[in-house]
Amino acid sequence: MNELEKKLQQLDHQSYAKLKQIAGTYRADDGVELAIDYVQGDPFAAPSRVRVRIPMQTSRLRREDFSTPSRTISLKHLFTKACSKTAHKQKTITGTGKSGMIMIDAPGPEVIDRASVSFLSDSIEFRLSTGIPAAGRKILGKKAAELLTKQLPETALKAVTAITRADIEKTIQLQDDQDEGRRQIETLQGCAFIANGSVLPRASGISSAPMKNAVPFQSPSSQVVELELPHRGKVRGMLIKKGVTLIAGGGYHGKSTLLQALERGVYNHEAEDGRELVWTDESAVKIRAEDRRSVWNVDISAFINTLPGKKQTTNFSTEDASGSTSQAANMAEAMQAGSRLFLIDEDTSATNFMIRDARMQRLVSPDKEPITPFTDRIRPLYETHGISSILVLGGSGDYFEPADEVIVMDEYVPKDRTKEAKAIAASLPAERSRPADHEFPKNRDRSIPASSIQNRWHPKKKVQAKGKNTLLIGKGAVDLHDVEQLVSPSQSEALAQMIVWCVQNSRNDESLSSVIDRLYETVQQSGLESVSPFFPKHPGNTALPRKYELYAAFNRLPFYK
Ligand code: ADP
Ligand code: MG
């Protein structure tokens, strides 16, 4: 560190561009290491990237804390959050632009594998961003030395020492309970579970904090199961079994809130989130209408057949899908990606994709209507493909027949109304005519459009995320706004890196699913950071997306043609 201090003294008041010289690795007497991987071009540019290593023995971690991969993930979450807190508390060094800023990629309430912290054999590595101090375009040598040699190591060190043994144990115990709970749901043939007492609503539409004074979740007695968790012991809650579940109920009674909690239940949540005991089959995909999205070569014929102008739908492509065709494409793609549970909300669905009643069938004859409503596909989807559905629909009783369970939300409390719904269906038949069964899309795979990506991919232009909802690829953009289970911009950043990895590592004519499988194997073996183009340097602010979101990104690339 002395060496770095000296360099910075010499650079004091010199032009900012000269800062590039300080890239490199430095060591302090106490064993703390600082690696300056990337130095920003000017005080307003993207901040500099550094890694700080704190000796493992400084922490209260023990070897057995890392006995499962999921424990390691939850510890990364804990250490990142702690570091984010100490970074906020550092008294700031002032200067031009981002001068003095210290940042770590802070996680939301979802516990997702991330590159912000890495546990090495004898140290803990924090991946930070910082703004090296300047006055105008001149280096502030003394302040820069203070920031890099004192504040950065301190930020990481204070985070590590602030974490008590009790914090660590609480974290891994919750993780073990979550792992075991998910296993038990699978054994019980469930596709989702919500513990009694869970808090599902959020404080506001833009907040991920739990709502204060919310009505706590309470399972209907017919659906209650009791799980036995290793640390928490017995936990009771509602099991949603595999099959078709309809969630009905009056407007504003909490249907969408329940479904959103299930959408997020593919991830584990941290303690005190309110949803830490809400677990959904981790392959669950929210299926929604997404008009205007582009679709490339998808077989949607099970849902939509022969569009106007005799347009075939076994190979459907468009740059501007309608509500129903986009929802059909989302469904076919999720099937191909291997999802076993579809989550559907009336609020984000195309009506004509979801329902078509007897009267409309009479007015518009079947040969003039390309869409087979989902009412007629939802059962075969489960029976022949094993794909369950949880459906929020308050506006039509057409799903009473195909549903295995009908739950009615009543003032935020779910009630089991299956018997009544079945009796109503028997006494008031829907009188709809049923279309013939149709084969679901085959598992036809595609290959990566590597050549077309590379053609349009200006070599100097990177694939990068712009916030959570957009990927920029050369001259094109991928809109991920409606990929609703993407929860963090760091996942989008990872998606950008993963697309590059897939394009660069795909073998001739290799199918997309094969490359994606190899990618996730690599992540499992060598860590998320290993697919970053910058690794082993600071890998960027990335968090692991599920493979369903990676498929979603590929399926929306503007370059298939
Ligand atoms: P629906 O889809 O049935 O129309 P929503 O799920 O959109 O209803 O919920 C309506 C409102 O009620 C939202 O503002 C939501 O935050 C709130 N809400 C949902 N669940 C609860 C709850 N358990 N306790 C208190 N408020 C809730
Ligand atoms: Mg709703």
TrEMBL record:
Domain MRB1590-like C-terminal: 462-557
Domain ATPase of the ABC class N-terminal: 1-160
Residue ranges of domain ATPase of the ABC class C-terminal in the record: 166-444
Biased composition (Basic and acidic residues): 431-447
InterPro entries from the UniProt entry: ABC_ATPase_C, ABC_ATPase_put, ABC_N, MRB1590-like_C, P-loop_NTPase
Region of interest: Disordered: 427-460
Superkingdom as given in the UniProt entry: Bacteria
UniProt cross-references to Pfam families, sorted A to Z: ABC_ATPase, ABC_N, MRB1590_C
Cross-referenced PANTHER family: ATPASE (PTHR38149:SF1)
Protein name: ABC-ATPase domain-containing protein
Organism: Alkalicoccus luteus
